[in-house]
Specification:
CATH class: Alpha Beta
Structural class: alpha/beta
Shape: globular
CATH topology: Rossmann fold
Helix content: 25-40%
CATH architecture: 3-Layer(aba) Sandwich
CATH superfamily: Flavodoxin domain
Radius of gyration: 19 Å
Low-confidence stretches: none
Number of strands: 6
Oligomer: single chain
Mean pLDDT: 96
Length: 236
């Protein structure tokens, strides 16, 4: 299996970075081919702009998604975007590894999503969910945070973590057609002992070794909707 790890943490000695290293070692030892996009180390540009295109279909008014389509079709995407697209196309599994920032991902990773998951190639029109351009590939979100599990119970102070990450799990990865695995969570990381951190890494390694056995999250099938995207069950 080909695995791409998209990693976003500014500190190379962080626990999040240890999770990246554990994933590389575990997956490589099991015979998988692993590549890493370490976004901070790469100084990846997260800003989607007209500079992403070496030529434009409309020089007077920027519609970013439409220019993505034109540039991808005509070899006009900037080299840094093309390099990341090649990795995504190569991968069977993409792991997104990051600390939770403000109920979300770091800005540098959001920028990677904005710039790399280009319109036309990966989605567009009726090409989403089970018709998305990345169907057949798997995605895993692995995160660290300072909170404790009880804070994210159904009646917890923050509510379920999967709901917090719905914009990524469903609105991005599921939308693109990925088979999305349940997220792996490193809880309360800044406040726990070294032994507790080692136990999380062991749990993460076990998760990675059982990737093929994990049940994926459920998202809509477009076959259940009509041409206006109304549920077929509502008819009649």
């Amino acid at each position: 299996m080909n695995v791409l790890i998209v990693h976003a943490h500014p500190e190379s000695a962080s626990f999040t970075s240890s999770m990246r290293d554990a994933a590389v070692d575990t997956l490589s030892a099991d015979g998988h081919h692993v590549r890493v996009s370490d976004l901070y180390q790469m100084d990846f540009n997260p800003v989607a702009s007209e500079n992403d295109f070496m030529g434009r279909a409309n020089e007077d008014y920027l519609v970013y998604a439409l220019e993505q389509r034109n540039a991808d079709s005509n070899g006009l995407l900037s080299p840094d975007i093309n390099a990341e697209i090649e990795k995504v196309v190569w991968a069977d599994l993409v792991i997104f590894n990051f600390p939770i920032y403000w109920f979300s991902m770091p800005a540098i990773m959001k920028g990677w999503v904005d710039r790399v998951f280009v319109s036309g190639r990966f989605y567009g029109g009726m090409r989403f969910y089970d018709r998305g351009g990345l169907r057949g590939k798997k995605a895993l979100v692995s995160v660290t945070l300072g909170g404790q599990p009880h804070m994210f119970d159904e009646d917890g102070v923050h509510g379920p973590l999967q709901e917090m990450l719905r914009h990524l799990l469903r609105g991005t990865l599921g939308y693109l057609g990925f088979e999305v695995l349940p997220p792996f969570i490193g809880w309360h990381v800044p406040y726990i002992s070294g032994e507790a951190r080692a136990a999380i890494l062991d749990e993460y390694r076990a998760c990675l070794r059982s990737i093929d056995d994990l049940e994926t999250m459920k998202f809509p099938s477009l076959g259940d909707f009509d041409e206006t995207l109304r549920p077929k069950t509502l008819k009649g």
